[in-house]
Structure formats: structure tokens, C-alpha cells
């Protein structure tokens, strides 16, 4: 679904990850040999992972990212009239984490608070809903909090998940402006089973296995899906809006793993300067990975006039937004 | 992709020290595991544009079986 939203701007992006950083080999003690860890790192690209301690949740990481904005940028808590929290690792099934953040940040009571359940493409969903609130005149300034602590859902005996997932949170200010955001969403619910945590809520899984209650991935299905659907989603958007691929300054892609991003470079005909893997020492942080790409030190000095942000994965889902971030304040990532 | 190039690409996919030929049995390659399955799919997709069914990758017995999947 292609759509555009006018009269908005992404004015600030802030990110946070846990202080704790583990090498894949040490974190996966007993699960992989040193040689396997090296082979994995060569393919997935992940050498170290940001892992949240038991007492640290996605809410805490997003809170730190949001506080970083109020500390360093001329945006006040009382300016916020909408808060959105996007995650698949909320504090509770109920109440909504957006409400917890409203209270912890001391935001006004007369604001709208929304939780959205989305993962790898969640940042784009959040930008879309926040922009709609602003463009319809319902809100002036929306605080969008997006993040995940997927490491808490990985089984310590599952090499395919334990070796790649890290944790992070983000906070973004979306407000009235003179920019236009161009979106393309694709939804593939028939592939829901490719990335799933069985028995995570009310639908009971009747099959057995050691990984029930933990995140499971079907790697081959996801690879085929990604290399088919991500390039077609992006190319469809470019074609619809008559934009030349060469005019895109940066492809800020979900950091699924290095092999996927390298293959996407080939499929899209884009070099790795424009479509980078930056998560070597962070891990796959699900919905937080796109703001982390924008916040990466190597990206900061680049021209960010035409930034294609693309999330893909759980759902399965692909979501893309083309945005002008040339006036966006991008804060340094904080450690919690 | 001809056989020569395929062997070259498979050596990269497997990242193993042993020499690979078209007759090499996959069960004899320690590195032929879930990571290599995914890496194989990516390599074929990027080089030929083909999407191979995961089941067919699991059923392959030797390197030549994998090559055949790329030209089917």
C-alpha cells in the first residue's frame, strides 16, 4: 500500500542500548565453538551483542532515549500531545507501555497514548501513525518510542537466535513541518509462522519441542522472502513517485544480519556505502535497528536529504518510508 | 552459472578447508548446516535470481544436486 503524508517532519532521533556488551562466543557459552563463532560472525556479521540485564526492559531503554531528547534538545515534556510505543516486548500484556512512559516522563494527562505491536518493520509503522496524528491536526508534537529486548525471548540452546539478537530502544519526535513522507507497506500474514514465539499469549501451541515459549526463526523462508519482497517494495515506491534510485542518499535498512544486507545490496544494485551493516557490535535489535543506523557515527556526516528507511521481518511484513532527514537532530546513542 | 563458478561460490558459502567437487557428499562436509543453507539460498538468488524451495535444499545429497537446483 503506497501512501504519502504531508506537513510533518521527523525533528529528533535518539537511541539507547544496554551498557552490557557480550561477545557472541562468551554469551553463547557451550552452544558454539570459537571457530563456529568466527564462522557465524563472518556470515551474520555479529561479533558482540548489546544485552539488557533482567531488570531492564524495552520501556527503560526507550525512557532513556526520550530523556536524552528532553535534556539536550529544545523540546519540552509539555509540548508532547501524543505518545506511541512500538514493540513486541512490552512490559505487560496489559496495561499498554505507552501509558507507563507517559507517567515516567511526566507528560501531560490530556494526550493520546497508543501501543503498536510490530517488530522489524515497527519503526516505519510508528512513523506512519505518528505522522497521521500530526497531519490530521490531532497532535502537534508526537513522541514515538520504538524498541525491543528480543534477547529475553531467545533460548540459550538455539544457535539461530541466541547468536544474533541484541536489545535497544529509541525515541523520535515527529511534529508539524513542511516535509512529505512517502510510504509503502506490504503484509504477508500467511507467513506468520516463519518468525514466532509459540505459547506467548492465548493461542496455545499443541506441538512439542524445546523452543516452545521462545523465539523461533525459519532462516531459509526468511531469506527467500526478504530477497523477493524487500527489493520489490522499494522499487515499487521509487517507481510510483518517479524517484531515481541514484538520488537516494542512504538506505537505512533493518539490520537483520550482514548476509541479508550484502545480498540486498546486490539485488538493489546499491553499494555498501549507501546500504551499510552497522550492527557488528550491537546485534539485530528488531524495531530499534533503523534509528540505530541513522544514529551511527559513520552516517552522521552524510547527506540525509533522501533517506529510504526499510523494515522487514516478523509478520511477515515489509514497510518502507522515504524521508528528508536533512534538518533532523540526531543524538548520540546513550548506554543504560 | 557454470559448474566451475558454482564450485567457487560453494567454497565461499561453506568456508571450509576441504576441497569441494561436484561429487562431494554434503553429509561429509561439517559446515553444511543451517547457516550454509541460508547462505546457499542467498548466493543462488543473487547470482541467478532464482528462489529455491527450502525442502529441496534439505533433500540434496551431493554438491551436484545443489547445482541442478540452480539450473532447473
Features:
heterodimer, A: 336 residues, alpha/beta, 10 helices, B: 72 residues, mainly alpha, 0% strand
Shape field of chain B: globular
- Note the overall shape of chain A: globular
Mean pLDDT level of chain B: 91
> Helical content of chain B, roughly?
55-70%
Topology:
The complex is a heterodimer of chains A (336) and B (72).
Chain A (H helix, E strand, L loop, with lengths): L1 E16 L3 E3 H4 L6 H11 L3 E3 L7 H15 L9 E5 L10 H9 L6 E5 L5 H14 L5 E9 L9 H4 L4 E21 L7 E3 L17 E3 L1 H22 L9 E4 L4 H11 L20 H7 L1 H4 L6 E7 L3 E7 L5 E2 L3 E2 L1
Parallel strand pairs in A: 1-13, 1-14, 4-5, 4-6, 10-11
Antiparallel strand pairs in A: 1-7, 2-3, 6-7, 7-12, 8-9, 11-12
Chain B lengths: L2 H12 L19 H15 L5 H6 L3 H9 L1
What does this structure look like?
The complex is a heterodimer of chains A (336) and B (72). Chain A has 336 residues and is of the alpha/beta class. Helices cover 30% and strands 27% of the residues of chain A. In chain A, strand 11 and strand 12 form a beta hairpin. The longest helix of chain A is centred in the last third of the chain and has 22 residues. Chain B is mostly helical and 72 residues long. Chain B is globular, with a radius of gyration of 11 Å. At the A-B interface, helix 2, helix 7 and helix 8 of A face helix 2 of B.
Short description:
The complex is a heterodimer of chains A (336) and B (72). Chain A has 336 residues and is of the alpha/beta class. Helices cover 30% and strands 27% of the residues of chain A.
Amino acid at each position: 500500500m503506497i501512501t504519502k503524508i504531508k506537513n510533518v517532519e521527523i525533528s529528533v532521533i535518539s537511541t539507547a542500548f544496554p551498557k552490557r556488551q557480550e561477545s557472541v562466543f562468551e554469551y553463547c557459552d557451550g552452544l558454539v565453538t570459537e571457530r563456529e563463532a568466527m564462522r557465524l560472525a563472518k556470515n551474520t556479521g555479529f561479533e558482540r551483542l548489546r544485552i539488557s540485564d533482567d531488570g531492564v526492559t524495552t520501556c527503560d531503554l526507550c525512557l532513556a532515549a526520550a530523556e536524552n531528547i528532553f535534556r539536550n534538545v529544545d523540546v519540552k515534556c509539555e509540548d508532547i500531545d501524543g505518545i506511541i510505543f512500538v514493540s513486541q516486548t512490552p512490559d505487560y500484556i496489559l496495561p499498554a507501555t505507552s501509558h507507563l512512559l507517559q507517567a515516567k516522563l511526566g507528560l501531560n494527562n490530556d494526550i493520546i497514548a497508543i501501543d503498536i505491536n510490530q517488530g522489524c518493520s515497527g519503526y516505519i509503522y510508528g512513523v506512519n501513525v505518528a505522522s497521521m496524528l500530526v497531519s490530521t491536526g490531532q497532535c502537534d508534537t508526537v513522541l514515538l518510542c520504538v524498541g525491543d529486548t528480543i534477547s529475553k525471548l531467545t533460548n540459550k540452546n538455539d544457535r539461530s537466535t541466541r547468536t544474533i539478537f541484541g536489545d535497544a530502544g529509541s525515541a523520535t519526535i515527529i511534529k508539524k513541518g513542511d516535509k512529505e513522507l512517502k510510504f509503502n507497506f506490504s503484509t504477508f500474514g500467511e507467513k506468520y509462522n516463519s518468525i514466532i514465539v509459540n505459547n506467548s499469549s492465548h493461542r496455545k501451541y499443541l506441538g512439542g519441542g524445546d523452543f516452545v515459549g521462545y523465539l523461533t526463526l525459519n532462516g531459509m523462508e526468511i531469506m527467500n522472502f526478504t530477497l523477493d519482497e524487500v527489493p520489490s517494495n522499494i522499487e515499487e515506491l521509487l517507481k510510483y513517485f518517479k524517484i531515481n534510485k541514484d538520488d537516494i542518499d542512504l538506505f537505512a535498512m533493518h539490520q537483520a544480519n550482514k548476509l541479508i544486507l550484502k545480498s540486498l545490496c546486490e539485488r538493489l544494485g546499491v553499494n555498501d556505502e549507501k546500504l551499510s551493516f552497522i550492527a557488528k557490535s550491537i546485534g539485530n535489535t528488531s524495531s530499534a535497528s533503523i534509528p540505530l543506523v541513522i544514529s551511527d557515527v559513520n552516517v552522521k556526516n552524510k547527506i540525509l536529504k533522501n533517506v529510504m528507511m526499510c523494515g522487514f521481518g516478523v509478520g511477515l511484513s515489509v514497510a518502507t518510508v522515504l524521508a528528508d532527514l536533512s534538518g533532523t537532530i540526531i543524538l548520540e546513542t546513550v548506554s543504560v | 552459472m557454470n559448474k566451475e563458478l558454482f564450485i567457487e561460490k560453494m567454497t565461499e558459502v561453506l568456508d571450509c578447508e576441504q576441497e569441494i567437487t561436484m561429487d562431494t557428499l554434503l553429509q561429509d562436509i561439517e559446515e553444511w548446516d543451517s547457516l550454509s543453507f541460508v547462505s546457499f539460498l542467498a548466493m543462488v538468488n543473487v547470482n541467478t535470481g532464482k528462489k529455491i524451495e527450502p525442502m529441496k535444499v534439505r533433500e540434496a545429497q551431493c554438491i551436484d544436486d545443489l547445482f541442478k537446483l540452480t539450473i532447473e
